[in-house]
Design brief:
homodimer; 432 residues; alpha+beta; nine-stranded mixed β-sheet; five-stranded mixed β-sheet; 39% helix; 20% strand; elongated
Chain lengths: 432, 432
Amino acid sequence: MCAQILSTQPYKGTRDFYPDDMRLRNWFFGKIRRSLELSAYEEYNGPMLESLDIYIAKSGEEIANKQTYNFADRGGRMVAIRPEMTPSVARIVAAKMGELNYPLKWFSIPNMYRYERPQHGRLREFWQLNVDIFGCDTYEADLDVIESAISLLLAFGADETMFKVHINNRRFFNDVIAAISGTDAEGARLVSKVIDRKDKVDRESYEKDLHELGLSDEQIAKIDALYTMNVKDATALCPDTIGAQELVSLFDMLDKTGLSKYCVFDFGIIRGLDYYTGTVFEVFDEAPENNRAMFGGGRYDNLVGMFAKNAKISGVGYGMGDVTLESFLLTHGLVPDLNEGETKVLVTRFDDVPYEQYLSIVDTLRQNGITASIYVGSKKFGKQIDYAIKGHYSHVLIMGSSEAESASVKIKDLSTREESLVALDKLCEYFN
Amino acid sequence: MCAQILSTQPYKGTRDFYPDDMRLRNWFFGKIRRSLELSAYEEYNGPMLESLDIYIAKSGEEIANKQTYNFADRGGRMVAIRPEMTPSVARIVAAKMGELNYPLKWFSIPNMYRYERPQHGRLREFWQLNVDIFGCDTYEADLDVIESAISLLLAFGADETMFKVHINNRRFFNDVIAAISGTDAEGARLVSKVIDRKDKVDRESYEKDLHELGLSDEQIAKIDALYTMNVKDATALCPDTIGAQELVSLFDMLDKTGLSKYCVFDFGIIRGLDYYTGTVFEVFDEAPENNRAMFGGGRYDNLVGMFAKNAKISGVGYGMGDVTLESFLLTHGLVPDLNEGETKVLVTRFDDVPYEQYLSIVDTLRQNGITASIYVGSKKFGKQIDYAIKGHYSHVLIMGSSEAESASVKIKDLSTREESLVALDKLCEYFN
């Protein structure tokens, strides 16, 4: 034991979870689990440490090295603390590729680390819900994951005034750009790259770049118009393309199932240009003070490519950070008082009553499913009451020598401050 | 995306949790949580990464460096992936020392890494239940944590033939050694060090070492006798010492509360010689083929010393690894078939029935709390049935065009293979 006094701060960008914090986390992870399991999604997980290779294979050496915590282990292997789940789940699926029951409906709530400057809503250690369907190429899977995202927000008590799912389709995006610009696929790709950077450059250089690719002012205006179109008008611009048909099918089902009030077509949703290949979506917080994309996802074609040659498993899914969800719930007042309504009994003690009598009461309460604790240690009665109040106990049981003689206890309800004298053999009835 | 094909193996000493594995984990972590919460223990957690300093302060530089995954971050700070929870919880308690509500009854189920050669029951990544009471110096807290360990094994269906809690007391150990050897505290400490190594050396050198410290054959025989004594005879050797009195009080309460059938006094339980200061215990698996200490713990005096000068908070608790518990439950046949008895409905689909009709059925089932999924994608009926069987679905719903016309569905119970034709508006009644 060294004599130096060490810092009590958690490592930069990480959090300590005291019991009140932890109760909140368990509550919301529990709700997420129940919501997804009700839709037959199954939970999985993988290790915190992975070979650095898999992040390099996905994102390139520079990004992988920069964004992960990585180091050489004693065997000289480069390992990283996972910064995201997709490479892990790709590995996990690839390892048993031939045995699994497709389509997989999977979710996970792993903790992960990203090496970044801690700032509002961006921590170094965070938890991320990952929901995916693997092995189904058609819009039904897209619909299923979007529905799961809506369902879990509804499970928390959110409604259509609080969030909106903005949906686009990357095939449609490519096809409609090709249709408007009249170029071939390669030409459309170059135009897409300019459009992808639209929000990052000023209007003048945006137009200049498109002019250089041969687009007229009229064509640019047609592209501009897409951003305010509804899905029917937008898809009418290239009705026979696969992308347009996927969008039409998806929105048709959203309409018929009553989910369309949570959704909107948004041509501005593009996401990673080289990664997503079909439906893409982002869920926006509708609170005026917090209006921004909370999380998103989409369809990608080749999950297992880096692990298996000549095998193709497609995926569609999303990832949602715990900090984002927590801030959404707090903004909209959707976090209840988790202590309220819970029965939690503190059995106080006096030195002149045999200790085993208190232990027996606690045991009886627990046997009947009532959360109970004896006050461990022996302090003055007032201190024990303070302990109960500070510890969110709902009731205090008091048995001095006179109550003990008459085989009864005083029960004090800490919310109403009412006291009742209850016979020991009626104790559990009092709480039921 | 690089062209190289990567390994699908998880990192050495870690595990992937496929849905079946994960269901088992969630089941047993859930049982642990419920059992501890019923006794008013509260869950907390901390970050995976901690400053390496806190492990060096506890265990010394050599052990800390050898047993942890540690590395310098980009700011030059030495960080470690937590290999145990005690230094973290000490830091967490110390950070809010003046605000907390003592005695704290806390537990945690963190994942952690230890750098060691993977072998049976020893993995590099594992989860460890930590249960502690902080801030109560008397035997009541020792009793409470021992009771919590027994309760959680009982919650899994274990009984007294399957496990036994071996209990000793380090104060008693020191006092009785001093009483037998007739030496002062320092002399007793030297004797204790020899006894602590008893199982690691042969009998001859054990006796030689004790002789060198001045003990006679008669005194050595007295020490030998302690290993087979019951608590009453053992404590009678130095009845007025605090250690003996703590043991007597503890075993008296274990008797009076009916817990003594799970417990036994065992002078052979010493644990870390420099760490524990009072009650110590180990829980043994009683299966003949697996008879060994599964987990243990005890009382230690100074939790927060490395973080706060002049502050003393004592603790008593234990840590239990997930692999150990899992192997205990499997050995004793205490893991039920987690799929059995669960209702999980797959709605199959045909192309000639509008898809929204299937979506509406799924929605109705979920609204009534029944786990349900539509078959996403469109494959032949036989493939959809295979999917249901392999995916542990309990029921399959079949609605072809003729059933759709009569607003009914066929329900096939996959366990009994019975089929029923049920009107759509009686669907939920069928399952309730």
